[in-house]
Design brief:
The complex is a heterodimer. By secondary structure, chain A is an alpha/beta fold. Chain A is built from 10 helices and 10 strands. A 10-stranded mixed β-sheet of chain A has the order 5-4-1-2-10-9-3-8-7-6, with helices on both faces. In chain A, helix 4 crosses helix 6 and helix 6 runs parallel beside helix 7. In chain A, 49% of the residues are buried. Chain B is flat. By secondary structure, chain B is mostly helical. The interface between A and B is medium-sized, with 32 and 26 residues.
């Protein structure tokens, strides 16, 4: 139940400012694709256009096509709400709902749109999702406690559990480990490895070792200078990008010769 | 570079600290002292009325018999005001913070704030001269069609100067307080939580239910309690609008009275024990307000663990 994403000629604007220019990329199903690149190169902005979360930002708009197994996310009559229920997202900072218990956090997405599920089904779903996020053993005795009482890494895994509880096709992760310590980071990376058996995963990361560890394919974004649009420079197998890239800019970046 | 020993400290900076902490402490103590002074004044001045023999109090049946109808009247007027104002205020606040385009939102916010700047006597005059007259046909309709409910029992007041009209005027008066506070709270909802909801596939309304309202809940309670405080204590508007009388269940007949209006209307020509009686009424209002605030605190603290403050 995972789908591929094909992006064709995508431009992203903030008002009149062209933020990301002419991206063409194919993201394979049941694989991990990493976006790397310097700060401000538009990789997070681009990630958000993959589930229309950029529309939250006033003035942001796109031109081009994003195809989820052939269906254009920006086609006429496509509801962003439906898009987001198919393509989940995990954010830079863990953001469980502070007013909800751990259990309610996991069920938050499922209870939307007035979907009714029985208590038994809900219990099973909570357990399955938390198992899927490698968090069940740590929280099974305190499901009624607030999610904000967990550690940062646990909160982030709770957010992943919340995202997979709605059974999306794709999971987008926007620097999911940047606010976490190395041990929690490792736990998340292990989890990403497990997730790709069932889901298409796209991850933005500043950490090149992380990209090398978790991803099957890597896309390198770069920016020519301040005020210039970000561009996709190169995309390929992670091994190739890190050992034998075709572009000079990619080689400079992955070998650390570039800011 | 000169070496500095650990025992040396910058004299000026320390003095600033001391002045500031002293000023803060003094301000805190002053508030307590003023509150205590008011409470003491009310208690001392009220004692003659509380201990006087029943036949000397207005009405001739003692202080309790005198005060409880106007306590009920006060509470009824305030509850009507909140029942009308709270949903409207939260709706307007949500519209300004999450739905309206930016230009409209700031204009609307400005108008709402302006409502708070109108003196209460103007609201009173508007209520008495305009609203009461215009709304009395609606009262007739209520009496004819909903008259089986005790609160809408006819015959409706011909002038429209009823406790319901007073409650509506109070609702308009507390609306800006609740709206501006709620709007500020809603605007402070963390972007993170709003995005979390949207990324799960929530519609805008679902996002508000999931992220904005739970986050704003303690703030909404505080805002409503501040509005309640104003509604309980409002004097001029009620005195002008309400054609007061004995306690009646029907909201659309003349009758009922609130503590604040009772004091305002009777104080100028009161003397002796009557003054004490009115001050005792003021003491009761003081206690009610204090109780309301304590309940509000309790409601807010009950959900502390889930407040997101940690």
């Amino acid at each position: 139940m995972s789908k591929r994403i094909d992006v064709k000629d995508l431009n992203v604007y903030y008002g009149k400012f062209l933020a990301v220019e002419d991206v063409n990329i194919n993201i394979e199903a049941k694989s991990v694709t990493a976006f790397i690149g310097p700060s401000g190169c538009g990789k997070s902005t681009f990630l958000r256009t993959l589930n229309r979360m950029h529309e939250v930002i006033p003035g942001a708009r796109v031109e081009g096509e994003v195809l989820l197994d052939g269906d254009n996310l920006y086609g006429p009559g496509v509801d962003p709400v439906t898009v987001r229920s198919q393509i989940g997202m995990v954010f830079q900072r863990p953001n469980p709902f502070p007013t909800m218990s751990i259990r309610d956090n996991v069920l938050a997405g499922v209870k939307l749109n007035n979907q009714k599920i029985s208590k038994g089904e809900a219990d099973a779903l909570v357990e399955r999702s938390l198992q899927g996020a490698n968090l069940w053993n740590e929280v099974k005795d305190r499901l009624a406690k607030p999610g904000s009482g967990l550690s940062g890494g646990q909160q982030q895994r709770l957010c992943i559990a919340r995202a997979i509880a709605v059974e999306p096709q794709v999971i987008l992760m926007d620097e999911p480990c940047s606010a976490l310590d190395p041990i929690s980071t490792l736990a998340i990376e292990d989890l990403i490895n497990d997730l790709k058996d069932q889901y298409t995963v796209v991850i933005v990361t500043h950490n090149m070792q992380q990209a090398a560890r978790v991803s099957d394919r890597t896309a390198f974004f770069n920016i020519a200078g301040t005020g210039k649009p970000g561009k996709l420079i190169e995309v390929g197998d992670t091994h190739t990008i890190f050992s034998n890239p075709t572009q000079k800019a990619t080689e400079d970046y992955v070998s650390g010769r570039f800011g | 570079m000169t070496t500095t020993s650990l025992t040396q400290s910058r004299g000026a900076g320390r003095a600033g600290d001391k002045v500031f902490s002293g000023a803060a402490l003094a301000a805190g103590c002053l508030i307590l002292a003023v509150l205590f002074g008011v409470a003491l004044f009310l208690v001392v001045q009220a004692i003659p009325a509380l201990v006087a023999s029943p036949d000397k109090i207005q009405g001739g049946e003692g202080f309790f018999a005198y005060i409880w109808p106007i306590v009920i009247g006060t509470v009824i007027a305030a509850v009507i005001a909140l029942v009308i104002a709270t949903p409207v205020a939260i709706g307007v606040a949500l519209f300004i913070s999450h739905f309206a385009p930016r230009g409209l939102a700031s204009g609307l916010g400005y108008v709402i704030d302006l409502l708070a700047a109108i003196p209460s006597v103007v609201y009173g005059a508007w209520g008495a001269a305009f609203l009461a007259r215009e709304i009395s046909p609606a009262y007739d309709w209520l009496a004819n069609n909903m008259g089986w409910l005790p609160i809408f029992q006819g015959p409706a007041s011909a002038t429209g100067k009823t406790i319901l009209t007073a409650g509506i005027v109070l609702a308009v008066m507390v609306l800006p307080i609740i709206t501006s506070l709620s709007r500020e709270i809603f605007l402070q909802t963390p972007k993170l939580h709003e995005e979390a909801a949207l990324a799960l596939g929530a519609t805008r309304w679902e996002m508000i239910k999931m992220a904005v309202l739970p986050f704003g809940r303690p703030g909404i309670v505080s805002a409503v309690m501040l509005g309640l405080g104003r509604a309980l204590g409002e004097t001029m508007a009620v005195a002008l609008v309400l054609s007061s009388g004995a306690l009646t269940a029907s909201l659309i007949q003349s009758g009922n009275q609130t503590i604040a209006a009772e004091i305002a209307l009777n104080f100028p020509e009161a003397s002796g024990l009557k003054v004490s009686t009115l001050i005792a009424a003021g003491l009761v209002l003081f206690v009610i307000t204090l109780g309301v605030n304590m309940i509000a605190r309790w409601i807010i603290s009950r959900h502390k663990e889930f407040s997101g403050a940690n």
